[in-house]
Amino acid sequence: MKWPDLNSVLSQVPFAVVGAVATRLYMPERVTQDLDIIVSIHDATAAYEKLTAAGFKRTGTLTIGGGAWQAPDGSQIDVLEGKDEWWPDVIKAAQSNCDAAGLPVIPLPFLVMMKYQASRLQDLADISRMLGQAGAATLAEVRAIFAKYMPDEQDDLESLIQLGQLEFQKRNDP
Q1: What is the structure's pLDDT at 167?
Q2: Which residue, 27, 43, 75, 147, is the most exposed by fewest CB within 10 angstroms?
Q3: What is the CATH number of domain 1-106?
């Protein structure tokens, strides 16, 4: 799917793609209605000013913090505001983790954590699909992030890893 070039719109405002569009870096792309990005809470005002100057229209406020926007081409953009102290570092890491369109994408361990916290059925399915295809080093990174930020959730993480690996196992059926 093609999305607006936010790199030029948000120049000098670091952001990271999160949500369904971010998952396309880690699993086969799935259809989604909007592009979700995150900016540090400290950069939110600058991001909103740049979007407005580029012809984007604010269409609402997100209950989780941030705003819903419509791009000049009609596509929908949700801008989330990262309030936790670790967001600036994660957004910075995304700048060197770009997808085929050149959009900076949140690193997988933090995307998994975000989707786990949201805990919607689609988010949990995304987690299992992404982790089912991940290598040992990547899984170790995800486990380390969960150990640091969500230690009580490690058993559930392991279950999602196992479900994903089962989904991508080759069947030995005749």
Answers
A1: 87
A2: 147
A3: 3.30.460.40
